[in-house]
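Quick one: structure for this chain?
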Amino acid sequence: MSVGRTLFAATLAGMLALTMSPASSQTLRYANQGDLKSLDPYSLNESTTHAHLGHVYQGLTARDKDLKIIPALAESWETPEPTRWRFHLRKGVKFHNGDPFTADDVLFSADRVRNKNSNMQTRLAPNVKVVKVDDYTVDFVLPSPNPILHSAWDVWYIMDKKWAEENKAVEPTPVSATSPSYASLHENGTGPFIIESHQPGVKTVFKANPNYWGKMEGNLKEIIFTPIASDATRVAALLSGEVDVIEPVPIQDISRVDASPNAQVLKAPELRTIFIGFDTVRDELLYSNIKGKNPFKDVKVREAFYKAIDIELIKTRVMRGLSTPSALMIAPELFALSKEFTRPKFDPDGAKKLLTEAGYPDGFEVTMDCPNDRYVNDAAICQAVVGMLARIGVKINLLAQPKAQYFAKVLKQGGYQTSFFMLGWTPSTMDSHNVLNDIMGCRDDAKSSRGEANLGGYCNKEFDAITDKVLVETDTAKRNQLIKQAYEISIKDWAYIPLHQQALAWGVSKKVNLPQRADNLVMFHWATKKE
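Got it. Here's what it folds into:
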């Protein structure tokens, strides 16, 4: 055996030894390329984190397998008037420590999710007043109508006020914090699983909650999560039967997994859009050889970067056909007028000309931030972009990091420390307003949660004005036209470079039945496992 294969085998054995112990058919072992860095549900607005914490925490609402909004901690709701939503809370629910769930916890969670340290501020606007009617009724009073107020609340997880206060966890702890808080390492939710142990970077063990208020559709009693960053190691663990589910399966290994006797790949289009963005707000880029000015403030530079990227080559070579090139910052399934938009053609010669016109005939140098364990082939996509931009004279210094380091650097709590970046986004509301507001809205109002995930600071006040109209418009046809106008403005500005919607690829043992949702949240309370 070669030295490389020996080291690989040793690495695999060492990692799996952390989790492998005799277990029943009701134990499911799961491996993801990324880690679960925090148990604080307001620390990171990221799908994988939401999925993990969705086993233990719950929102007022939930989503079913087809992403339809359904009751959760709220049994029902209505709008007595256009600017008032009333939620009737579920009685008899207890947190994992035995504390009763009441309206006080909803009010506390409403304040906490809007705290300056929260990465989930856009879930509830700062101008929404939350009123306790009684112990099991809460009103949300709005300054203007909002037909999609609750559409992102399935991952706004409700926390126990008493527990948070007792453990000095009233404020969220961002992932960029140098030391974790109690809530970063412990949980106290109302969900179907309890976290028995949590070792960041090593293993997290979930046990079925014996006092769960709801009905468990699946049959799992235990989930053992192990982060396995190495694609080869992760696939080997699935094929050997050492783990039952992996996510994602590297594109190059899909056919091998499907050909195996004991596992298969669940494949489907995902709603997540992968895109590239620029720092358009600083007068001088943080990471560039151009001093005294910011090249990305010039629309010609942004257009040049867009036209230099060969999206079809990324699709065929990097994604091996498992991606859908996008003209918009949202999946076509989520916007009825998406077919009216087409992606500009790949034009490296035109891109080079635009750079010259902008005053950069020899290009320039800039650092690109990219995660290497978050999206399908994320680092490989960024590496391909590096080569494409080199053709027009731009030197990209690629900084590809694990998602914990990446997000800690580029998010608001890290000071938006990026000049050029790649990001993926699934709108939590399944609606364009989330994209227009969170990703593309101006972030210059400290009192507003607008632009919370706008890493590059793109800002167009006309665009924001239309976004505000989208929020309150209840006529679907008129609303779609407003959304179209907003996208047209951003395209004219070359605000971002949408790349594609990636495909879902979950590796699943043939002993496991696991529904696959288009938002890529792996929800194990639906899973069943047989002998």
